[in-house]
Amino acid sequence: MEMTTTITGFVALYIFLLAAFTGYEIIGRVPAILHTPLMSGSNFIHGIVVVGAMWALLNAGSTLEQVIGFVGVLLGAGNAAGGYVVTERMLEMFKPTNKASGADKE
Amino acid sequence: MFSTFLIDAAYFVAAFLFLYGLKRMASPVTARSGIVVAGGGMVLAVAAAFLYGFDVSARAEPYLTTNVILLVIALGLGIGWAWISGKRVAMTDMPQMVALYNGMGGGAAAAIAATELLSGNALAHGPVVTVLAILGGLIGAVALSGSLIAWAKLDGRMNKAWRLPKHQYVNAALLCGALFIGAVVTVMAVVGAEETPILLILVFFAVALALGVLLTTPIGGADMPVVISLYNAFTGLAVAFEGFVLQNPAMIIAGTVVGSAGTLLTLMMAKAMNRQVSNIIFSDFGGEDDGSDGEIQGTMKACDASDAAISMFYANKVIIVPGYGLAVAQAQHKLYEFVKLLQKQGVEVSFAIHPVAGRMPGHMNVLLAEAGVPYDIIHDLEDINEEFAQADVAIVLGANDVVNPAARTRKSSPIYGMPILNVDQARQAYVVKRGQGKGYSGVENELFFLDNTSMVYGDAQKVMVQMIEAVKSLG
């Protein structure tokens, strides 16, 4: 089965367009109380950069590339893990105990 | 290769989980589960990325064993350090941690750009890919050094706004220099060069990092949340660009979504502060004083915490304005204890939250939620600002710029035009403050000099303890 991904030219632009609108729509109607957690959450999501750095390190063909790749993975992993922990801790507080107005049950 | 198919399938699922998780994070009810869903996507993507090891380029094959070992070490160190530091950091210090982690993401994107340019992978794919690699590297490096400066400022390691003579020209020159080097590399890709000279790449990233530093140093602390949000969007964009270079759809989609969502968040935050993003980046907010301080009439009056507490005890309607000082003193729990005593007495208590209370929009809500304050007595600026005129007492705890009437009247003030909470309209205002210092923007606060304002000096935590004691002794 041949299903390799090649993203070039207009296909790339279409993906960019659709993803950009998706991000805009998801954030569009968010209450102000969630701005900080959401910034933190989106900070976590671009931690996906770690997989790119992993590819770069695995394909490193010289010592210099190994060093840069190592740093890349280190930083990317920090972004992903730190972003997750911090976001999770913030959102932890939105959990129970509120007889709140806007927080109806799902 | 079958491993390629597995990786692509894993990325597809991961991309779905990111979007679904982010969507759930956008509502207070489902937010908690949202981050867990997105986290699952991340674990899946990282696990799948190990499969890259089965299909490396010919020139990397001799290095593969070392590379895998390095990979495991780097992942372990990165995750371990970030996990522990993220768990340990106090809630009040969250904003700078977000800045730090964001800078790391930008650095990772820049590192990918560097390896792709050095190894010749980017050049082999033609000028378009080369341009994207360069732009991603530039934006990522700016996000890295800029976020580090933002972190240092919020963490109190760097307090002064710092600028060079002709600062904006230096920035413009750096940007032009980076773009020029990028253009040179692109031309090399067009004429079919196989590798980029190391020196050129080094200079390119040095210039980009310097640009990030110089863009951020002149910006005052009050604007830092907007700047962090902007760099967050930058990193997203850099990740998306490098995703195109690596033909990695998960990076493209996640990066682009963050880029656009982050841009929108930045605009929303800037709007809440009545600031324009371009003004923040290119202006002097938080800079030197304009020398108009001397015109303020009146004197500051000090008063005891217990007196203030007693007058609130006998009031009908009290509005509390919490600020960063409250958070620093970790006094939100004591504050809520005091509020419950007032409520038992039948006093109507509400919280008024300025859009930028704390250090980021929504930061104060997080801190109050931590103390267990129910949502229904916490109000936004638009909802509560009219009610100050009917309030018997308004008490400001560790907030300053967001209650400064100069924002309404004094055109020369750097905070002019920012929406503020109308504390000056309450019958009596108390301001709990550690000393007579100025706010984060460095502007003198006219509110403190008004006839119906009394200052309660002291650490917010200690003041709250005194207030609780005073009220308890009454009843």
General description of the model:
The complex is a heterodimer of chains A (106) and B (475). Chain A is mainly α and 106 residues long. Chain A has helices spanning 9-28, 35-45, 49-58, 63-92. In chain A, helix 2 (35-45) runs antiparallel to helix 4 (63-92) and helix 3 runs antiparallel to helix 4 (63-92). Chain A is flat and about 50 Å long. Chain A starts with 8 loop residues before the first helix and ends in a 14-residue tail after the last helix. Chain B is α/β, with parallel strands linked by helices and 475 residues long. In chain B, 59% of the residues lie in helices and 7% in strands. Chain B has 18 helices and six strands. In chain B, strands 3-2-1-4-5-6 form a six-stranded parallel beta sheet. In chain B, helix 17 (406-409) links the parallel strand 4 (393-397) and strand 5. The interface between A and B is large, with 93 and 126 residues. Chain A: The transhydrogenation between NADH and NADP is coupled to respiration and ATP hydrolysis and functions as a proton pump across the membrane.
Keywords:
heterodimer; A: 106 residues; 67% helix; flat; B: 6-stranded parallel beta sheet; 18 helices; membrane (chain B); NAD (chain B); NAD(P) transhydrogenase subunit beta (chain B)
Strand composition percent of chain B: 5-15%
3D shape of chain B:
elongated
Question: What is the assembly state of the chains in this entry?
Answer: heterodimer
Radius of gyration of chain A: 19 Å
Instruction: Find the structural class of chain B using helix and strand composition.
Output: alpha/beta
Strand tally of chain A is 0
Radius of gyration of chain B (Å): 26 Å
Largest sheet of chain B: 6 strands, parallel
The arrangement of helices and strands of chain A along the chain is HHHH
Largest sheet of chain A, in brief, is:
none
Which outline of chain A best applies? flat
Number of helices of chain A: 4
GO molecular function, one term (chain A): proton-translocating NAD(P)+ transhydrogenase activity
Catalytic activity (chain A): NAD(+) + NADPH + H(+)(in) = NADH + NADP(+) + H(+)(out)
Membrane topology (chain A): Multi-pass membrane protein
Subcellular location (chain A): Cell inner membrane
